[in-house]
Prior knowledge:
Blueprint: E1 13-19, E2 24-30, E3 35-36, E4 46-50, E5 59-63, E6 74-81, E7 88-89
Antiparallel strand pairs: 1-5, 1-7, 2-3, 2-6, 4-5
Amino acid sequence: MVQPEGIVSTGVITIRLTWDNQPDLDLHVFEPTSHVYYRNKQGQAGYLDLDDINGYGPEHYYAKCQKLEVGSYKVAVNYYSGLGTSSAEV
């Protein structure tokens, strides 16, 4: 498995997505008032600082304490492109 190089930040919420096959999977984080994903990397509370398009991941989201919003945070994975099946870990 080849991991892309990248510098990621940490926060009070940190979400990391990896997968086991070549498809392109995408991490989506639904903040109380924002949807963070590859086309909108900056949310109200957090940021998608690593978006892997070559397979296996990781994709990485973090939120800092001082920017947290009250409400629900939901995490989703989208099978963006590729052939075959893949198992993901969040």
